[in-house]
Amino acid sequence: MSFSTLGLSEKVLAAVEASGYTEPTAIQAGAIPYVLERRDVLGIAQTGTGKTASFTLPMITLLEKGRARARMPRTLILEPTRELAAQVEDNFNRYGVNHKLNVALLIGGVSFAEQDRKLERGADVLIATPGRLLDHFERGKLLLQGVDILVIDEADRMLDMGFIPDIERICKLIPFTRQTLFFSATMPSEIQRLTDTFLQNPAKVEVAKASSTAETVNQRIVASEPEDYEKRAKLRELIEGADDLQNAIVFCNRKRDVATLFRSLVRHEFSVGALHGDMDQRSRMTMLDNFKKGNIKVLVASDVAARGLDIPSVSHVFNFDLPIQAEDYVHRIGRTGRAGRDGTAISIVTGKDEKALQAINETIGKELEWIGDPLDFSIPVEEKKPRRRSTRGQRDKNRSRRAKTETQEPAVQETESLPAGLEEQPIVPMHTERRAPAPRARGGRRTSQPKDEAIFRNASHIPAFLLKPARSKVQSH
Question: What is the pTM of this model?
Answer without folding.
Answer: 0.62
